[in-house]
Amino acid sequence: MKFQQQPESRSHSYPVPVEGVTSLDFDPYASEVLRDPYPHYEMMREAGPIVWLEKYGVYAVTRYDSVRNVLTDPETYCSSAGVGLTNFHTEEPWRQPSIILEVDPPEHTKTRAVFTRILSPRALKKLTSTFEAQAELMVDRMIEKGVCDGVKDLADAFPIKVFGDAVGVPKDGREHLLPYGDMVFNAFGPANDRFKECLANLGPATEWITNACQRENLTSDGFGAELYAAADAGDISHEDAGMLVRTTLSAGLDTTIFTMGNALVNLGRNPDQWAVLRDDPKRARATIEEVLRYDSTFHSFYRTTTKETELEGVPLAREQKVLVFVASANRDPRHWADPDRFDVLRKATGNMGFGAGIHGCAGQMIARMEGEIALRTLASKVESIELLGEPILHFNNTVRGYTSMPMRVTAKKH
Amino acid sequence: MPTITYELADGTRTDIKVDVGANVMRTAIDADIPGIVAECGGAAMCATCHVYLEKDSASAFTTISDVEEEMLECVAEDRQPESRLSCQLYVPEGIEQIIVRLPETQG
Ligand code: HEM
Ligand code: FES
Predict the structure, then answer these.
(1) Does any ligand 2 atom lie closer than 6 A to the CB of residue B24?
(2) For residue B46, which of A294, A224, A70, A354 has the smallest C-alpha distance?
């Protein structure tokens, strides 16, 4: 592994935080924050364009412009030191760094090009009708049941089926993918009790996923097979191909599941918004975009400075971790009108729910497509959705979603 | 200061003064120019920021990368030799005016 910068060669150390910067003892990973993070984000946004988080020794950016500026300047704010709290340049990572998410150009560009090809809009078109057929089956089953669980019957079931098939992993045991993803996203935060408990309960998940990523266990026509074909063509190594199948699974499943669940919860809580979608199911894609803005799945991750620099007038030393709150940027009133209103008619493009810049989510087109198809199918067939009790929130250090959502659905009359 | 001229499919033109280094997609979005969707926000994943560069403007920009090449294969309206993804275009030094034509549809 390459070290861009040794810790002892830090060129300059500024007293942190620099004078004039608000210093907070706030813990963004505390359960009471995760339960409802938005008032806390507002507090940080109003405290300044950049704040210092004492507990972790990091700066944080929470406003739209400052978040975008950091994410679109990868030469200054790199990913190769890890996009979690741990600095891979100075500390041992819990697993091997990802060769797409946690590398910088030029290595990044090579891997990214392979993903771009495999997950391009053109490549995804082939999957549309299969995805639609599955969504119909699942929505029909929900209608038949009447009282169902929006998470288990759709938000979980749909991506596990269609995304699992699209990657080409074995059908039996796919439930192991969820705790693995949970682990990966917890690991972007501190090694707190939530992380330790998650690691201790992983059970057979790691072994299952390791096997699932091997070439002989993948179908011959999925993204997994295509990643190995890219290795045959010499674009990446065969070892890389296996790692990228793993990345695809860990980055691409929990996230889409949570996003779909967040969509259902917000539509359930806002019957007027559901009515807009139900009366015009073509708005499904715009609805997903608004869900990603209003109730972001991925809340925060890190960048690390490669050199001395200045951010919002504050001098930063090298190897300084900066925590980037995309979920807060998506609610910044400096950028959005009436940001705390869930509005499916809004133009929500430009939200950073998928990040921004060169590391902006490589799976975003398939994620949008899954969400769009599931919501459009639901909106075409269902008259009303009614939440039965409070949905059960899942606690994770960096991603937000629900694990259960009892609801009643009634069919449209034709 | 260089100018970017956006020409809509119906022929209407809008001129915007920008700094060197400005991104052609982002400038359009910030100015609410219709005709550029940019669903992926510049991550080169969506191909909905397709533009046609006027000849003189074309040579001013960096060449098409592998990633952009891949995405240009996915554009909704016919790809032409002067097709580019505006999110990959940064205004270079030494050019006064850049003219981009917008396609009728982005998908
Ligand atoms: C709604 C669902 C999803 C959300 C909210 C999401 C969110 C994100 C975010 C915020 C990043 C940027 C991280 C950073 O800048 O450090 C990212 C990167 C990434 N995502 Fe997603 N993602 C989703 C679905 C997917 C899917 C379905 C896949 C796989 C097919 C995927 C694969 C990736 C990969 C490979 C990267 C790394 C890209 C790079 O570093 O160049 N994601 N995602
Ligand atoms: S904005 Fe998506 S490819 Fe240019």
Answers:
(1) no
(2) A354
